[in-house]
Amino acid sequence: MSELHPWVAAAATGVLPDWAVARKKRRAHMARVAELLREWGEARGDHRRDVERWCAVGYLHDVLRDADPDDLRAELSSPWDQLPDEVIHGPAAADRLRRGGVRDEPLLTAVACHTLGSPDFDDIGKALYVADFLEPGRQLQPKWRARLREEMPERLDTVAKAVVGKRIQFLIKKGRPVPLETLGLWNRLAKGRLWASASEV
Ligand SMILES: [Fe+2]
Ligand SMILES: [Fe+2]
Questions:
Q1: What is the rounded distance in angstroms from the CA atom of residue 46 to the CA atom of residue 124?
Q2: 89 C-alpha to ligand 1 centroid (Å)
Q3: What is the CATH number of the domain that holds 63?
Q4: Does the residue 201 lie in any domain?
Q5: Which ligand is closest to the CA of 134, given by its number?
Q6: Closest-lying ligand to the alpha carbon of 57?
């Protein structure tokens, strides 16, 4: 098993890379997400290294959240540079981590796609997606959030499905488009097959 990258190991103790752009309130959110992830990793009985990865991703996901989106866009190549302002900080953080030598693909996907979700999520990606949405600092629907937190970490897929379903319902209610990545995560988690492939019709 390879050593954790120094940025990942440091983030597991709450220390951010020196290129972080996150204000105080944001850091408090990141700490709450990281704390949930550490708790869940430990409750799963995961290896210490994995518990550290889970905790680290809680800190690293929003490490560039308060940077100017246009500055982040300028660093990214297509198609990532097309993303809207509120989404771009994830891919930008993953790109910085990768350029700095982080090679942990499930962790990088978790960071890159934490806002929209992704059908390519490993457990660490699903857990971050869920923790980011359910952390106790979020004011909206606290009872619903608390109930879902109680189901973690045992029912990761069920809880992730509830969260992504809620997000899709919200977007539909507002008449807004649902990103393909979000629908992709839903389809990964939903029961049953999508439909017969063309060759089977
Ligand atoms: Fe974020
Ligand atoms: Fe976040």
A1: 12
A2: 7
A3: 1.10.3210.10
A4: no
A5: 2
A6: 2
